[in-house]
Amino acid sequence: MTSFDAADSSEVPEADRVEQNLTIGEDVPDQVGDESSLEVNEADAAEQSRVVPDDEEYPRE
């Protein structure tokens, strides 16, 4: 059986890969230089801005 490291997968978004590689308790600088800055994916931003209706607002059959 082979081991799988999700942080090394090409399917993992860059921001998630960086988060996966952080050590617990590691200090993350407030100011991040241009070299490691991550751009916001427009699709991710649109998905995050969507409002999900409450369960009561879903139509019932």
Summed up:
The chain contains two helices and no strands.
Rounded to an integer in angstroms, the radius of gyration calculated over CA atoms is 18 Å
Low-confidence stretches: none
Helical fraction equals 25-40%
Mean pLDDT reading: 68
Shape estimate = elongated
Could you give the count of β-strands? 0
Distance between the termini: 46 Å
Q: Number of DSSP helices?
A: 2
Order of helices and strands: HH
Structural class: mainly alpha
Major sheet: size, sense and barrel closure? none
Give the amount of beta strand, in percent: under 5%
Task: Characterize the structure shown.
- This protein is mainly alpha-helical and 61 residues long.
- The protein has two helices and no strands.
- It starts with 13 loop residues before the first helix and ends in a 12-residue tail after the last helix.
- The relative contact order is 0.10.
- The model has no long low-confidence stretch (mean pLDDT 68).
